[in-house]
Amino acid sequence: MSTNRAPGRRPRILVTVQTPSAAADPDLARLKNSRYLAQVEAAGGDPVAIDETAIDEERQAAFASMDGLLLSGGTDLHPSHYGQPVDGSTDIEPGRDALELAAWRAAAARSLPVLGICRGIQVINVFAGGSLTQHIDGHASPPYGSGHANRHPMRVRRASRMARILRPTDPGDFVLQVNTYHHQGFSHAQLAPGLAVSGTAMHPGGEIVEAIESVGSGQLILGIQCHPERTESTPSEFARLFAFFVDAARGT
User: Fold this and answer.
1) 20 to 30 A Cα–Cα from 7, which one of 79, 166, 188, 252?
2) Checking DSSP bridges between strand 208-214 and strand 174-179, what pairing results, if any?
3) Where along the chain do its domains lie?
4) 58 sits in which H/E element
5) pLDDT classification of 2: cutoffs 50, 70, 90
6) With 0-12 CB in 10 A as exposed, 13-18 as middle and 19+ as buried, what is 32?
């Protein structure tokens, strides 16, 4: 466990992000990255961004000082991490994969809270032993900044931790309209051991997992497929997700 956590202190949240210089539009990448940091800060955390250009000494220092880990959205994880050849995955960044695997292991070793968003929920599922479907039709939106986000209904499961976070007075099985910016995902059958499904969306091929959480009283792990940092297309309930995560990193 972290030795730095204490009530009233702003916990340090390590946020893995895309390297702007590696993106097709560096300014847009910087904007996307900043929105994760802004939500962590608004929730009372001290966000620290890290990307694949960080040298080993910087990585080790960041891992040692973090109180929680946020795995943000971005490009596709290389399917070799779940034993498959490339068959639908695009824009793969192996350097980011390596950074996030190291960060995931460091958080697990210290039992620190982890939150995954979009790519992040997929990374969690794979690193915990699950797999992905490399392409799913119908869950994309216009490129970020060029039009309004498409939305779809996500059902939040009864009695899940996610239900208690988003609507503390509601037991669950409620539906929220969430934004959709992904082309990969996973089903119940692809879920990693030790994780539970807390949100789903319907798809012609069957239900897609849209939210996950850890089982039991050990390390807190939460994942969400939509982009709650994009507040213009996100239900207001998701502010509670960031607050809950930051509070967990604080140790409260």
Assistant:
1) 166
2) unpaired
3) 12-250
4) helix 56-65
5) very low
6) buried
What's the CA dihedral at 232, 167, 43, 9 to 10 degrees?
A: 180
The amino acid at residue 195 is L
Spatial separation of the C-alpha atoms in residues 171 and 155, rounded to whole Å? 12
d(CA 222, CA 68): 12
Judge whether residue 148 has pLDDT over 80: no
Instruction: Report yes or no: 211 and 174 within 8 Å, Cβ to Cβ.
Output: no
What is the enclosing helix (H) or strand (E) of 95?
helix 94-109
Asked if 226 is an active-site residue, the reply is: no
CATH topology of domain 12-250: Rossmann fold (3.40.50)
Q: Could you tell me the sign of the dihedral formed by the alpha carbons of 228, 16, 70, 226, in that order? A: positive
**For residue 1, what pLDDT band results from cuts at 50, 70 and 90?**
very low
The one catalytic residue among 100, 139, 213, 227: 227
Shortest CA distance to 187 belongs to which of 173, 177, 178, 197?
197
| C-alpha span between 120 and 211 (Å, rounded) | 11
Q: Taking the C-alpha atoms of 238, 151, 156 and 194 in order, what is their torsion angle to the nearest 10 degrees?
A: -90
Catalytic site residue 100?
A: no
Kindly name the residue from 52, 118, 182, 226 that is annotated as catalytic.
118
* Cβ proximity of 52 and 233 under 8 Å: no
The CA distance from 103 to 101, in Å, is 5
β strands within the chain, DSSP E: 12-16, 46-50, 68-71, 114-117, 151-156, 174-179, 195-201, 208-214, 221-224
